[in-house]
């Protein structure tokens, strides 16, 4: 991990574009780690609705709430990264994404250098890809999607906007995961099986048939639960 306090990093950061992290919790730390590994941006700090108890996040200052975010844009900061997860609900991350866009920010793609992304895969604005993840040929990743560490996205698969694909999830080929779906840690979706809008696939589940909108499925093979 590159240290934000190292002299080499400080001297190089003068030539980098400034970026603000939106969020101050665990996922913000995850995004900071990816951005440090990319070594392309000068992280100036974090903004969130809830303050960091220590006043900093991974050594970067907590700068304030979303009013501060707007003020930073007025000073010339134009880049932001979404540091808000979505395990229980992706609506908040979507709301924050839209708020940042309305302010005028460009949302960057934090993609870990150890991720593998096919040259003809499409990655939407603000989406992040963790270490060890693989996005295969002609896959399409929407806006504000989280692809966790060691996840696999099969060829010609579509992941729609604001989806969470947790770490070690395996998503097969030629399928669709619709908007705001949640795929929990270690789940497997076999090829040509579609996941509905706002559906939840539980951790470790194996999905072998289509999952309807707003449905929760768990187990091997995955079955619906209320």
TrEMBL record:
<dbReference type="InterPro" id="IPR050179">
    <property type="entry name" value="Trans_hexapeptide_repeat"/>
</dbReference>
<feature type="binding site">
    <location>
        <position position="85"/>
    </location>
    <ligand>
        <name>substrate</name>
    </ligand>
</feature>
<dbReference type="InterPro" id="IPR018357">
    <property type="entry name" value="Hexapep_transf_CS"/>
</dbReference>
<comment type="similarity">
    <text>Belongs to the transferase hexapeptide repeat family.</text>
</comment>
<dbReference type="InterPro" id="IPR011004">
    <property type="entry name" value="Trimer_LpxA-like_sf"/>
</dbReference>
<dbReference type="InterPro" id="IPR041561">
    <property type="entry name" value="PglD_N"/>
</dbReference>
<protein>
    <recommendedName>
        <fullName>PglD N-terminal domain-containing protein</fullName>
    </recommendedName>
</protein>
<keyword id="KW-0808">Transferase</keyword>
<dbReference type="InterPro" id="IPR020019">
    <property type="entry name" value="AcTrfase_PglD-like"/>
</dbReference>
<feature type="site" description="Increases basicity of active site His">
    <location>
        <position position="156"/>
    </location>
</feature>
<dbReference type="GO" id="GO:0016740">
    <property type="term" value="F:transferase activity"/>
</dbReference>
<keyword id="KW-0677">Repeat</keyword>
<dbReference type="Pfam" id="PF17836">
    <property type="entry name" value="PglD_N"/>
</dbReference>
<feature type="domain" description="PglD N-terminal">
    <location>
        <begin position="18"/>
        <end position="99"/>
    </location>
</feature>
<feature type="active site" description="Proton acceptor">
    <location>
        <position position="155"/>
    </location>
</feature>
